[in-house]
Specification:
The chain is mostly helical and 95 residues long. It is 49% helix and 0% strand.
Length: 95
């Protein structure tokens, strides 16, 4: 999903450069106008993982996913790396 090959070919470069020029010449300097279409058609991200047809259940789906993630075993850094980080940047890690 995240490692898919880009769908941008050499022929698309002119279009991309035109978009960049339009954005930089605009007052707001926002790409959102160009990104919406790609988000909807799945070019950037194929779907929102918590979406539903009527919008109901989004919070419940997100909370279920949070519970799933929190139930996974922790993957802590090795102790020697934690110690080195704490020595070089005091207060960054909770002990």
């Amino acid at each position: 999903m995240f490692l898919a090959a880009p769908k941008l070919g050499k022929d698309d470069m002119k279009s991309v450069m035109e978009q960049i020029t339009k954005v930089f010449n605009s007052r707001q300097k926002l790409y959102a106008r160009f990104v919406r279409k790609s988000l909807r058609n799945g070019s950037i991200y194929f779907h929102y993982p918590f979406e539903s047809v009527d919008g109901d259940g989004v919070i419940e789906k997100a909370l279920a996913r949070l519970d799933e993630l929190l139930s996974r075993p922790l993957n802590n850094l090795p102790v020697d790396i934690q110690n080195r980080i704490c020595e070089e940047i005091p207060g960054i890690l909770q002990r």
